[in-house]
Amino acid sequence: MSYHKELAAAKKAASLAARLCQNVQKALLQSDVQSKTDKTPVTVADYGSQALVSFVLQQELHAEFSLVAEEDSKDLRKDGAQEIVERITKLVNNSLTSDGSYNVTLSTEDVLKAIDSGISEGGCQGRHWVLDPIDGTKGFLRGDQYAIALALLAGGKVVLGVLACPNLPLASLKDAGQHSPNNEVGCLFFAEVGGGTYMQPLDGSSAVKVQVSAVENPEEASFFESYEAAHSMHDLSSLIAQKLGVKAPPVRIDSQAKYGALSRGDGAIYLRFPHKGYREKIWDHAAGCIVVTEAGGVVTDAAGQPLDFSKGKHLDVDTGIIVTNQKLMPLLLNAVKESLKEKAPSS
Ligand SMILES: Nc1ncnc2c1ncn2[C@@H]1O[C@H](COP(=O)(O)O)[C@@H](OP(=O)(O)O)[C@H]1O
Ligand SMILES: [Mg+2]
Ligand SMILES: [Mg+2]
Ligand SMILES: [Mg+2]
């Protein structure tokens, strides 16, 4: 089974959405940021990116369409939100037409409907697109890393993934701070099942195949984790790293840019341990997961089980998510097990 047509559509959608987000990040207004009912932030760019990706996929694929996406239009349909909906509509229309990709003018209602086409619940049957229109909204607001993350599920398995990371340097993060001839940013990672992982500059020039780090000695490995301590327990990952013998300090960046950076070997390990009670969502991991596995990496929960994307919107993982190469995974799993035992409250 080949997904070339779907991959081309996904790359086009994510690249256009990245441009929309870059424009907003450059000129972010306080009024562009709202707080959702779960107290997490959302911006006009999250909504605009979701509307745009949903529109582009429908235009390009003309097929039956199921989309599981993070945002919905509930808050935008409330009294007083008209101005913000108009701003989102303008952003979407500008991004669709700016490079001549489409000759359309969407109405505010078209945009709200495009956002709401992301209401699918996913599941183990048929095909479902999975979208995080801006992953790492907090990073986006700080001017740091974020990603547009788009994946396709078929029969509950991720079969393709695209990660647009507008602020990620094209050169390895390992070289950060050193003199590097290339300080350009903006990466597009993409992977199709069985086809490997590629990275290209977001401006569209040619793609290169990427591979995860081949490091076998944990002392030489470095690890990624969330910038936000509220999203992942930094003290637990520090204990795991210490047990493994990792010497380098953690590299803290927002969003699935971590999966992208790991897929090209910028670091060898990603640790994610949310605080008790948090349930992971499929859009926070689907694209990142295939980008890393097709580059030779392994993504599991703390018990060593692969992530199961077939159960709807949520991922039910044991304790957390860990990512590394095949050689380091057994050592990492042991360090995780020991650290969790040590941290568990004694009864
Ligand atoms: N308490 C929590 N624990 C773990 N993850 C959380 C969280 N609250 C929000 N998140 C998720 O963490 C994602 C960002 O991950 P990271 O820390 O790697 O940047 C957010 O994605 P969004 O920014 O798309 O909402 C959100 O889904
Ligand atoms: Mg969010
Ligand atoms: Mg997210
Ligand atoms: Mg998001």
Describe the structure.
It is built from 9 helices and 16 strands. It folds into 2 domains: 4-210, Fructose-1,6-Bisphosphatase, subunit A, domain 1 (Fructose-1,6-Bisphosphatase, Chain A, domain 1); 218-343, D-Maltodextrin-Binding Protein, domain 2. With 347 residues, it is an alpha+beta fold. The chain starts with a helix and ends with a helix.
Brief rundown of the structure:
33% of the residues lie in helices and 22% in strands. With 347 residues, the chain is α+β, with helices and mostly antiparallel strands. Bound molecules: adenosine-3'-5'-diphosphate and magnesium ion (3 copies).
- What is the overall silhouette? globular
Named CATH topology of the largest domain:
Fructose-1,6-Bisphosphatase, Chain A, domain 1
Structural class of the helices, strands and pairings?
A: alpha+beta
Oligomer state equals single chain
The stretches of 5 or more residues where confidence is low (pLDDT under 50) are none
Q: Strand sequence of the main sheet, in spatial order?
A: 3-4-5-6-7-8-9
CATH superfamily of the largest domain: Fructose-1,6-Bisphosphatase, subunit A, domain 1
Radius of gyration: 19 Å
> Roughly how much helix do the residues carry, as a percent range?
25-40%
Write the layout of secondary structure elements.
Blueprint: H1 4-26, E1 33-35, E2 41-43, H2 44-61, E3 67-69, H3 82-97, H4 108-116, E4 127-135, H5 137-142, E5 147-154, E6 157-169, E7 185-192, E8 197-201, E9 208-210, E10 223-225, H6 234-244, E11 251-252, H7 257-263, E12 269-272, E13 280-281, H8 286-293, E14 297-301, E15 314-315, E16 321-325, H9 329-343
Parallel strand pairs: 3-4, 10-11, 10-12
Antiparallel strand pairs: 1-2, 4-5, 5-6, 6-7, 7-8, 8-9, 12-16, 13-15, 14-16
The structure holds adenosine-3'-5'-diphosphate and magnesium ion (MG) (3 copies).
One magnesium ion binds at residues 46, 70, 132-135, 137.
